[in-house]
Design brief:
Layout lengths: L5 E2 L8 E3 L9 E3 L5 E3 H4 L6 H10 L1 H6 L8
Antiparallel strand pairs: 1-2, 2-3, 3-4
Length: about 70
């Protein structure tokens, strides 16, 4: 993966996104810039309840997009 560039969409966000402009189809994010999650394979199952709450609050579009994955959580 080489050098990873992290950025925040908003200054106050807790989530760091990974610049994946060189890799098509990747949506990677992190809470601590150490553990990186893949939006499409890890959300919401690999997130803690607190991480999911933060993610959903900061990313309502994706929370709605994946609402069918949240049944039974």
């Amino acid at each position: 993966m080489g050098s990873v560039l992290f950025y925040k969409q908003n200054k106050t966000d807790q989530i760091w996104w990974v610049d994946t402009s060189e890799w098509d189809g990747y949506f990677l994010f992190s809470f601590d810039r150490k553990t990186v999650f893949n939006l499409f394979s890890d959300y919401p199952h690999k997130l803690t309840a607190e991480q999911k709450e933060i993610f959903d609050r900061e990313n309502p579009f994706w929370a709605d997009f994946f609402k069918d994955r949240q049944r039974g959580l």
